[in-house]
Write a structure and sequence with these properties.
Layout (H helix, E strand, L loop, with lengths): L7 E6 L1 E2 L9 E6 L2 E6 L5 E6 L6 E6 L4 E2 L4 E5 L10 E4 L14 E12 L3 E10 L2 E11 L12 E3 L10 E12 L6 E9 L5 E9 L10 E3 L12 E3 L1
Parallel strand pairs: 5-13
Antiparallel strand pairs: 1-5, 2-7, 3-4, 3-6, 6-8, 9-10, 10-14, 11-12, 11-15, 15-16, 17-18
């Protein structure tokens, strides 16, 4: 079954035929047996949050014919999995491409949504996989404290009720501080996991887009700043 309290954020972008953002266009969103109408934002995006309980798919349809949504109906299916404790991790991938400087490590902070059952602390282990190899490994101790998820309540389709009084299941956000080696480019896969006290392993993975760069610093240097006709000039690769 799908994780009970792991909300899922689904977003798509609408545009008119001329390529401009479709602002304020009504969009019908159907999920978990319920349909609502949401207007698109200033940049043409429509985002909704649905509770994962009894969720199989999310369908979005434009209600005006002059909008080109490629196609006019968008459907995303949710793959089910089973967690005996209703625990989960959900990496929030940065929207922008991550910076990379040749020969230099990059430090990034990645938010991770979690739901956990009767566990307040964990050691999260992680790996950065790129170019067919594990480029880096790390671990970080975190507190799994209940907290508000940074989700607009207006986007909810079928809101879940975690963090309720007397419930052992809580949701929140932890921030992982990760060091990316320059060899983790241009695409990298982030894999994280932790082991619960009852032996269950809770995990997640996500793909990161990183600027293309070399694993070492390089520079080109001419032997002279200005040369004369017929003069030999050397070009060095450092």
């Amino acid at each position: 079954m799908r994780e009970r309290f792991e909300d899922r954020f689904v977003e798509t972008k609408l545009s008119f035929v001329n390529g401009t953002a479709a602002k304020g266009v009504p969009v019908e969103v159907c999920a978990a047996g319920r349909c609502v109408t949401r207007p698109s934002g200033d940049n043409g995006t429509v985002g909704v949050v649905v509770s994962a309980q009894k969720l199989g798919s999310v369908k979005m349809s434009t209600l005006v014919g002059r909008v080109d949504e490629h196609p006019a109906t968008y459907c995303q299916y949710v793959s089910p999995y089973f967690s005996p404790s209703n625990s989960s991790l959900a990496i929030q991938v940065p929207e922008d491409e991550l910076e990379c400087e040749a020969g230099q490590e990059s430090r990034i902070s990645i938010p991770v949504f979690f739901s956990t059952n009767n566990q307040s602390r964990a050691t999260i282990f992680g790996q950065i996989v790129s170019r067919g190899k594990i480029q880096a490994s790390f671990s970080e101790k975190v507190n799994l404290n209940a907290g508000e998820l940074p989700i607009n309540a207006e986007h909810h389709i079928n809101a879940s009720t975690p963090n309720a009084s007397g419930s052992h299941i809580v949701t929140g956000v932890v921030i992982l501080n990760i060091t990316l080696p320059p060899t983790a480019s241009p695409q990298a896969k982030l894999v994280i996991w932790y082991k619960r006290y009852d032996g269950e392993v809770v995990s997640d993975s996500a793909h990161l887009n990183v600027e293309r760069c070399l694993g070492f610093g390089t520079s080109l240097e001419w032997s002279v700043a200005r040369g004369q006709v017929g003069e030999e000039i050397a070009l060095s690769l450092l």
